[in-house]
Specification:
Radius of gyration: 35 Å
Strand content: over 45%
Number of strands: 31
Length: 452
């Protein structure tokens, strides 16, 4: 019968006979791809040394959040993989007791009121807080389970999250193997800092990794994938191809590569990420970005408006298109006043392709108001005929341009009459762009006509 022995990834000492077979890390070959969807793809390579007599390989140290059915292992040609198990025996007293039944142990017994003696014994059984042992003199005694001393961890207990492969080997093997598997509870997001200075801005982007996967990753090549993959009909990730293309980028910065409708980022240095740790890596730095301030308000549809309403204008920052795609994330916008940085607001940025305009809503303007009221209404049973009055107030010390958006159907029977210039945007928004002097007020009148 073939003897059952274990190939160990680490130098964990186990009781019993263990052959000197090893799995040792290959330098610079481990990598981690983190997705937006709370998963990661681990790629690891090891040098495997296994003798013909061995029939099990224990691959220690996988994440305890591993998706077992995602494991893709490539073993040397002379090794046949028969089955796979995921094992993780969290050490408890009951597990240690159960694993030691029939094995030699030591028991600490009271010698007198102030001292103890230690005896050698064999554990026969254990239940609750009491255990039966056979002492070296042959006597069977009942002892407290807490009095049993364990000198080693039994071989059958695997104390780190591990994959156990049952294999057949036709020869002694010394060769490389590799494994890919998905993990859960690891995620990333991008965060941005936008510093405004007059009409220019500086943008810094950070990759933030949150690792709750149950495993630490030491000196790995780190990649992140921006985009929302479909897990229901998940396509295989062409890891080697993506990795090769990413490595073509300039290694002095976080490299970026568009791939299959997603965006793939490669950190150009080795990264270590502890379990239950957040790690931030800078990946974007752009300066001298042209920035424009915008002040906007969406007003009421005159078709069903009555009475009076006041709106505070929304402040936003419009940035010229950038030469890089931006993954979705939170943008925090700052400006400096009297040598002090002031947070102007936070904005949610969606996935933004390169060469796309960026508009960031940062808050409400304290000084800019627009009121709307009915100046005249002459509706009939079939027609709308309403004249609206809009009063724009600028209580700031600078001239500001108000951008007003008024929902109103655009068709052949609709008319908009006003002395102010306007355009239609987004199909049905009557849009005005009106400058108002510092500490000034301006009124505009608009007649809306349409069929009901």
């Amino acid at each position: 019968m073939k003897k059952m022995n274990l190939v160990l990834l680490s130098s964990l000492l186990l009781s019993g006979t263990v052959y000197a077979s090893t799995l040792s890390k290959i330098a610079d070959e481990d990598s981690l791809i983190v997705y937006n969807s709370n998963i990661g793809l681990v790629h690891e390579q090891r040098n495997l040394s296994i003798s013909q007599e061995e029939s099990n390989i224990i691959y220690e140290g996988v994440a305890n959040s591993i998706e077992i059915d995602s494991v893709n292992v490539s073993l040397p040609q002379d090794i046949k993989l028969k089955s796979q198990q995921y094992r993780f025996d969290k050490l408890t007293q009951s597990k240690l007791l159960e694993a030691h039944i029939g094995k030699n142990i030591e028991v600490r017994l009271p010698k007198d009121d102030q001292s103890f003696k230690i005896i050698n014994a064999t554990l026969l059984s254990s239940e609750n807080t009491k255990s039966l042992v056979r002492a070296s003199d042959g006597n069977i005694i009942t002892v407290d389970s807490d009095a049993i001393i364990f000198r080693a961890i039994p071989e059958e207990l695997i104390t780190k999250a591990s994959l156990v492969w049952n294999v057949e080997t036709t020869n002694n093997v010394n060769a490389a193997m590799q494994i890919d598997y998905l993990i859960n509870n690891i995620s990333w997001q991008s965060n941005y800092i936008l510093n405004l200075s007059k009409d220019e801005a500086t943008l810094d982007g950070w990759i933030s990794i949150d690792n709750r996967s149950g495993k630490a990753y030491e000196d790995v090549d780190l990649h992140v994938l921006a985009g929302d993959i479909n897990r229901a009909v998940q396509q295989p990730v062409r890891y080697k191809q993506v990795r090769a293309m990413a490595m073509m980028e300039d290694s002095s910065n976080v490299a970026h590569q568009a791939h299959e409708g997603y965006h793939f980022y490669t950190v150009p240095f080795k990264v270590s990420i502890a379990n239950n740790e957040k790690t931030q890596i800078k990946f974007i730095h752009r300066t001298n970005i042209a920035a424009q301030r915008k002040y906007t308000a969406i007003l009421s549809n005159p078709s069903n408006f009555n009475g009076y309403n006041e709106h505070t204008l929304t402040q936003s920052i419009s940035l010229n298109p950038l030469d890089i795609a931006l993954p979705k994330g939170i943008v925090r916008t700052y400006s400096q006043l009297n040598k002090t940085n002031i947070l102007l607001g936070e904005s949610n940025l969606e996935h933004t392709p390169k060469e796309s305009g960026i508009n960031l809503e940062i808050g409400k303007s304290f000084d800019l108001k627009v009121t709307e009221s009915i100046e005249k209404r002459d509706d009939s049973q079939y027609n709308l005929n309403a004249t609206m009055k809009y009063t724009l107030k600028n209580n700031s010390e600078e001239t500001k341009t108000f951008e007003l958006f008024i929902p109103f159907n655009k068709d052949e029977n609709s008319k908009v009459k006003t002395d102010a210039a306007f355009t239609y945007t987004k199909g049905n928004l009557v849009t005005f762009s009106i400058p108002v002097d510092a500490m000034g007020t301006k009124e505009i009148f608009v007649n809306f006509i349409s069929q009901k």
